[in-house]
Amino acid sequence: MITIKVKRNENINRVLQRFKAAVMSEGTLKTAKEKSHFVKPCIRKRLKSKEATRQKKKDEMKLIRQAQNEQNEWYR
After folding, report:
1. InterPro entries under this entry (predicted)?
2. Do 69 and 49 lie in a common domain?
3. Is the model's pTM score more than 0.85?
């Protein structure tokens, strides 16, 4: 359970920012969205596989960019 203590004379916007940060770090909102409807196990596996593929592609692109940056540094 998330609790945010409001300090005396603290701006309400600042309190809301702290609350939002606490919710995001705890993962409450993500869990609520995931459990808002039932997802079949086969679809869950498919989504997990797609996410893994996307992450692998992202990691490969990051390595390519790093290699290009290193190569550009050699030519300077």
Report:
1. Ribosomal_bS21 (IPR001911), Ribosomal_bS21_sf (IPR038380)
2. yes
3. no
